[in-house]
Amino acid sequence: MSLGLGLVCSRLVWDCVKALQELGSRNKLTLAWVPGHKGHKGNEEADRLAREGAGRALIGPEPFCGIAKTHVRASIDEWMDGKSREWWRKLRQTETGKDVHQGTVSKTNG
Known about the structure:
By secondary structure, the chain is mainly alpha-helical. The protein folds into two domains: 3-54, no CATH class; 69-109. It is 63% helix and 0% strand. The chain has helices at 11-26, 41-54, 69-92, 95-109. α3 (69-92) packs across α4. The termini are far apart. The relative contact order is 0.06. Residues 1-19 form the signal peptide. One of its GO terms (molecular function) is RNA-DNA hybrid ribonuclease activity. InterPro entries: RNaseH-like_sf, RNaseH_domain, RNaseH_sf. This is RNase H type-1 domain-containing protein.
């Protein structure tokens, strides 16, 4: 079965797929799902190593796990919306700002 059959949206998963493809290009490789908590020696060792690794400090570039582009875009949009509202609020507090704002409103309405 090929690893290229699915759609990959995660950078972490993509990196794993590429590493497995490279490994498989030079070696006979079988990737199999093993049910957890069933006493499989390799799986028990993987669980132990995962617990050990989770307790250590991260070494490597940030962010250490993928962030969806949609999440980044939504966060930026929310931040920009807040900045825009803050700017308009401050502008309305000044006499010139009131004149500018009122002039803008009257021009768009009339």
